[in-house]
Amino acid sequence: MAPHAEESVGTHTGHEDVQQQQENERNMPKPGEYIQFDHLPAGGPLNRWSHFMTRDHDYPGAQASLFALYFSQNYRTEEPAMLYSAGVPNKDMMKNAAHVGIATVWWEGNPCKAVQKQNMLPWQFNTIGVSDGITMGSEGMRFSLQSREIIADSIETVTCAQRHDANISIPGCDKNMPGVIMAAARHNRPFVMIYGGTMRRGHSQLLDKPINISTCYEAVGSYRYGVLKASCKKQSGAEATASEVMDDIEEHACPGVGACGGMYTANTMATAIEAMGLCLPGSSSFPAESPQKRSECERAAEAIRICMEKDIRPRDLITRRSFMNALKLTMVLGGSTNAVLHFLAMANSADVDLTLEDIHRVSEATPFLADLAPSGKHYMEDLCNVGGTPAVLKYLIAVGLIDGGIPTVTGKTLAENVSSWPSLDPGQTIIRDITKPIKKSGHLRILYGNFAPGGAVAKITGLEGDFFTGRARVFNKEHELNSALSAGLIKDEEEGQVLIVRYEGPKGGPGMPEQLQASAAIMGAGLKKIALVTDGRYSGASHGFIVGHVVPEAAVGGPIALVEDGDLITIDAVKNSIDIIEASGIKGAAGIAAELERRRRGWKPPKMKPVRGVLAKYARLVGDASHGAVTDAGGPAW
User: Fold this and answer.
1) Where does the Dihydroxy-acid/6-phosphogluconate dehydratase C-terminal domain lie (predicted)?
2) Which of 115, 230, 351, 528 is most buried, with most CB under 10 Å away?
3) Which of 342, 550, 557 is nearest to 457 (CA)?
4) For position 79, what pLDDT does the model report?
């Protein structure tokens, strides 16, 4: 049996006693040892596990991703780099076909022609990847962040074990990129990253507007709260139902291959890594299916040879100066909160001194300039059309915001790399002039207070306001809040609510899952007087008044574990604070501290679940979010 097999869930049948006896005789994992996944009983449909992901509209982002994935993997042009996707064949297959994973464990000498042309021997090998779009809102999301460590570990393992002289890594999603950079810092052999590229935007016929993966989750909120309506009639002339609008969104949100198209975590990390000089100019903004991306793959072989001949190593490029560039570009573009977690982890691997305080200082001094999704209306393919990341870097170097003197994988400086690129289109509206920012300081705020003594990360673009005060409403797991939203139980209240999701940190999750399903549902439902706070993470597609990465996390007894329904919480993105200002009717710092201490005496740490498998191992090793949630922080192994 697979290590995640569990007792079946389903309706009572006449053969229940026989089935139970058979189950008792099987060698099954003990309850609670591994993550439990709902599945259909044996003897019926074969899609026993995937059914819970593809039924109805519970996980629309997963369905949208799967429509894209199926064809990208099964219908290819003659060139493997040019993948075209059209979707799972039909709705019946989506809902009823079983999903069979094909796990390949291999490395081989299948030649890469561009490297061969440089008179070098190419050796392809693989590592893993987890789709956040498919796993979002489910137990599968717990495996997402820890995949970063597996990616870093596996690339380090093969590169060192096989004594490779250099490495070209081709990541395509958010955790993958910091994973390959962490590996590069560890093996420290000449290295070039090729970003897999961004996805094209989708289009909904019934909503008559561009859509993307984030639309799926926001539409669920509208759907659950009865406010999802079509903007256009169907081709037949009939009015479309809300369910038909959901079908339309799911089928067209992801029209092809590539990473999610907004300034979500993948594009945040790709642009930041380009600003650090670790990939070729334009890598972060070329769409996955563009001719430029194929050309980049050819040029990467030339770049890796230059790095080898000039002995340009990853740690020569992963420096404090390059991290400052990455942080500044992230603030300018309105990037993901996950970037904070990943930058800290990358710095840890490269032995670069980088802290939350550094991120705070950069945010205070850097304007937010980009009208990009999720808070804006444009996508990465739009930015590519007006000059792409090189044009943005060229502008920011010219105004003195970005350090153009850092070295890069081309053997030239960053400024030299972008000097020959066209400047930003004068008529473009995506990147504002530095004198007319959307917000004068960065949108990523590092918060401290009696709620988060070790820090927290907020994403405040200014559209939500800079302050929020509301009564706490506590959920001990993400699924509790998702269930409340699905049932329409979360309403706007006059005083405002701070929805707290806890026991979802690196150890408590375990795995620090992203919570786009809840944040997007709240936006889609049109709820305004709500802030979200968690010791878990948010997706790069999340927006609204959101605070994540609360440290210490609930699982280790942080103040977030002690908060009760009705406590008054205030969040100040100007003073960069998050505090409990009233607890059980008690006010004042001394009184609140005493009340929290009283609650602590009655608090008991939860039993860790699961207790075996990769997540249990991760929970035992992982550090806190304020230091990157890494598993190799240094020090002796015993």
Assistant:
1) 430-629
2) 115
3) 550
4) 27
- Element (DSSP H or E) covering residue 308: helix 291-309
Burial class (CB in 10 A: 0-12, 13-18, 19+), 426: exposed
Report helix, strand or coil for 217: helix
> What are the residue ranges of helices labelled H in 176-284?
176-187, 213-224, 242-252, 265-275
Report how far residue 611's alpha carbon sits from residue 592's, in angstroms, rounded to the nearest whole number. 35
Q: Which residues form the catalytic set?
A: 539
Q: Nearest 5 degrees, angle CA 256-CA 258-CA 264?
A: 120
454: pLDDT confidence band, cut at 50, 70 and 90? very high
Is pLDDT larger for residue 490 or for residue 60?
490
Name which of 159-163, 197-201, 304-308 the model is least confident about.
159-163
Model confidence at 57: pLDDT above 90? no
**Using CA atoms, how far apart are residues 575 and 270, in angstroms rounded to an integer?**
30
The identity of residue 96, as a single letter, is: N
Contact present, 144 and 135 (Cβ < 8 Å): yes
- Cα gap 260→629, rounded to integer Å: 24
- Cβ atoms within 10 Å, residue 556: 16
Q: Which amino acid is at 439?
A: K
> Which residues lie below 8 Å from residue 610, measured CB to CB, with a gap of 6+?
32, 33, 34, 35, 510, 616
Displacement of CA 394 from its chain's centroid (Å) = 27
Condensed to tens digits (0 to 9), the pLDDT of residues 272-300 reads: 999 999 999 999 999 999 999 999 989 99
**What count of Cα atoms within 13 Å lies in the side-chain half-sphere of residue 304?**
27
Percent of residues, the chain, with pLDDT higher than 70: 87
pLDDT digits (tens, 9 = 90+) for 473-486: 999 999 999 999 98
Distance between CA atoms of 376 and 428, rounded to whole angstroms?
14
User: Residue written as tokens 């990939």?
Assistant: 279
The four Cα atoms 478, 482, 485, 489 give a dihedral, to 10 degrees, of -60
153 to each of 36, 156, 406, 589, 613, how far by Cα in Å?
26, 5, 28, 45, 17
Give the position of tokens 């009639």.
233
d(CA 273, CA 327): 10
